[in-house]
Prior knowledge:
Helix content is 52%, strand content 10%. The chain is of the alpha/beta class. It folds into three domains: 6-128, CBS-domain, CATH 3.10.580.10; 143-333, 2-Layer Sandwich (Beta Polymerase, domain 2); 337-482, Four Helix Bundle (Hemerythrin (Met), subunit A), CATH 1.20.120.
Amino acid sequence: MESRIAIFSKLVRDCMRTLPLALEEGTSLGDVVRQMEAAGASSATVIDAEGRPIGIITERDITRRAAFKLHSGDPVEEVMTAPVLTIQEDEYLYYAIARMRRQGLRHMPVIDGERWLVGMLNLHDALATASETLMGQIDILTRDESLDGLKTIKAAQVELADQLLAENMPATEIQALLTHINNDIYRRVVNLSLSDMEFDGMGKPPVDFCVIVMGSGGRGENFLYPDQDNGLILEDYPDDRHTEIDAWFIELGERMCRGLDQVGLPLCKGFVMATNPLWRKTLSQWKEQVALWSHRRGVTALRLCDIFFDFRTAWGEPDMADELRHFVTETASGNPAFLRDMYEDDVEHMVALGWFGRLLTEKEDEDFKGRINLKHTGTLPLVEAMRLLAFRDGIKAISTLERMDALKDKGVLNADEHDYLSGAFRHISHLLLRQQVADFKAGEKVSNFVHPDTLSERERDMLVDSFKAIRALRAKVKSEFTGDVF
């Protein structure tokens, strides 16, 4: 029997009906009725000349808006609902259900990344995958866009993560879901900020822009309480408008970051936020900054690259971020000296493994003495190594596991290395997420520290093997990037 919370891992494409009925604009109502009847369809999507959805017509539209009121020769545009609400095929199904319920929709066209029609989501089909007891959770995780509603969503993440772990969902998949929820919170907070600024007389954005998230949020690897690592990519604009335009985006950055902090995504202590001009630039300025970092490789520049290079769009059209991603990848892959210096900056990030497979624990911090920091001495050394190898080989993937897969496909990692390293990443992520949930439930500070005594003998053995695999990878990276085999 399928898990009762499996819906939280399902995507829209898993539930949509493929080969949906699509009609060209201008189709007569008579033809609409005949085609819907022949296909046994309760709805049809109206597409433009390029095949992208522009409207939708349902049986209810025909019976309530067309019958006895319009002629069979009238075009479908007289009746269809437009503009049509669509949803991406790789969106989470629970989010689609909530959106359809809020909008009172029974059908929603499904599109791909190019906005081509690829399916139709029927609310009845979607609800059949979710029990009534889950609808309350779904509603909580998609609350209204007030700050109080978003605060409720953030708090509900812990309970969801706990349930998913209990159902044996892989921790990396839970991390992807948590990241999705957090990035959806970003989207809503930005929308709130934009609405408030317009209401306050500041008008609409003076140029197009997108909000990016960096670090674990960019890789899709959030744990329970990530802080803010965000920035803005702005459309290029004339220099003589800088004072006016930058002032507008300073205000947006302040409102966005303040709102995120209020709902449970704390301010970044290192000021990696859109309020800092370092992380608020036009597309051209970002390219100039990346080029500068790659040629003037001081310690500070290399640390900033570590933060920035794992970014993705959280709000807005992804075109500018995609263009910048291409530029970053091309810049890094064509500069071996830069990659070598990035390795040298990360060289001290080693796994917590001593002689004879002994686990190394914290000695200095009184709050966590005797525990292992599974982020700084576990996942981080692996994440950094994968990033370096991916950039060297021109791989644009962002998540750690996707980078591993791409490196295996290119022959950089053999099958055994890929198996050991992907297993290591999954195991350490599981231990980390489980500990964070346990910390929260015990009323303790949620951290990245795990005490060895909380692990079973098998889990400790697997952790030692994981550290050995990562250490071997780091040795391989050292040899390949520096030529030093010792």
